[in-house]
Amino acid sequence: MHKIFKNGAVLVQSEADMVALGQKIAATLQGGEVLGLVGDLGAGKTHLVQGILQGLGAGNPAASPTFSLVHEHADGRVPAVHFDFYRMKSEEEALGMGWDEYLSSGSVLLVEWADRFDGMLMPADTLWLVLKHVSDSVRSVALAC
């Protein structure tokens, strides 16, 4: 169950709740959206992505792409691509992976650590999801404008 705060943030009590929230977000996605996920280590970014991918019907579960930097999921209702900018040193590195092509592909782009290169996240209507630790087991997720 998710509790919504006055500021619009959603309170998430467990990993399962984070996945369920991702599934709800997925129900609104049509393809071509860019979601920038921002939060400290352990804030729940990958669990949220797992839920989004499940909600899109992707057959492969999301894993933290920290070592491969990008995972493509073409088998769902709409294709999705999961990025991790954490280990990237520059925008040029992301561009070298084909960022511009992914951006124009019509896929849902899910970008962890998106704030490292926030100038790359276009279009202007990128959805910024900010995840924060509230306690050891509780997180908040807010849509930043």
What does this structure look like?
This protein has helices spanning 15-26, 45-56, 91-96, 99-103, and strands at residues 3-4, 10-12, 34-38, 70-73, 80-84, 108-112, 127-133, 139-144. With 145 residues, the protein is α/β, with parallel strands linked by helices. 24% of the residues lie in helices and 26% in strands. The protein has an eight-stranded mixed beta sheet with strand order 1-2-8-7-3-6-5-4, with helices on one face. β7 and β8 (139-144) form a beta hairpin.
Write down the Rg.
14 Å
How helix-rich are the residues, as a percent range?
10-25%
Q: How many helix segments?
A: 4
- Return the average pLDDT rounded to an integer: 85
The span between the termini is: 24 Å
How many strand segments? Answer: 8
How are the elements arranged and paired?
Blueprint: E1 3-4, E2 10-12, H1 15-26, E3 34-38, H2 45-56, E4 70-73, E5 80-84, H3 91-96, H4 99-103, E6 108-112, E7 127-133, E8 139-144
Parallel strand pairs: 3-6, 3-7, 5-6
Antiparallel strand pairs: 1-2, 2-8, 4-5, 7-8
Helix pairs in contact: 1-2
